[in-house]
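Data card: per-record layout.
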Amino acid sequence: MKKAFLASILIIVSLVVALLFLNQRPRFAGVSLSQNEYHHVTKSRKQVDAMLTDFEGFNHSPKQKLAAIKSDADQIWQSNAKQLGVHDQAKLKEALYGNQGIVSLAENANKGNYRIDSSIASLLDKDFQVVIIKSTSPLNHSSASREKIIDQLNRQLKAESRLYHLANQQ
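The structure for this 170-residue chain is written out next.
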């Protein structure tokens, strides 16, 4: 009887511990996210990182990198546009494809055969910030939680320093 009681207690404790570990939601920047939200944030981070990486080689081979940058922009647009409202879609589209958008700035640099300098890096940084912010807009969390996620993405991606490093390359 005593052994059966101890065995049942052990089974119950094991089940509770298993439920706690198996039922945990993923966390990003200390914010608990659903699986879909976590996947969206990590996918967005990888897409923005890929675009920043393509810019890092832009001054040396602009024609090849321009095609990659356009492809990256298309992927970011496709991943985020459906989940955004009309206003946020317009902001994201402007940051990616507008007159002062990421793709337009790269196209203009390629057409004019000029390098990414600090003034263009500043415009690119502004656009990348919009992309990062809009990629977190679909998350159903408070603005404070989204700010934590945006801050973590900025720390991981280091967009500003990478772009200004590109501008300072000779």
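Known properties of this structure: Residues 41-168 form one domain. The first strand starts at residue 27 and ends at 28.

See the next section for split statistics.
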